[in-house]
User: What shape does this take?
Amino acid sequence: MKVLGNIVWFILGGFIGFFTWLILGVLWSITIIGIPIGMQCFKFSTMAAAPFGKDIEFGHGGASFMFNVLWLVLGGFALVIESVTMGVIFCLTIVGIPFGLQHFKQAKLALLPFGARIVKMEI
Assistant: This one.
């Protein structure tokens, strides 16, 4: 079921989030200082491509807080708006609710990417 969900997800708009994370990763990686942020973007682009069967664990720390603030100011807020908008649109229909929930999960990740890691869901 996860595979089918991921295929339908990618076709119905998951590719938008995937390419957005990928482009932001490339833009951040242009400078040496931005490489850690770019690496986070590349890591989370895989989550945006196939979110079913994966979950996000959030950690805490001073360095991750500072990077999250920098991230939000310099590009993360656009990803949050994109994910929330897509989530609301998908949740307007009963069939789209699982996809909308995945977009909301992406929005939380776009809000706080540093200190977060992707884990496989246990069944």
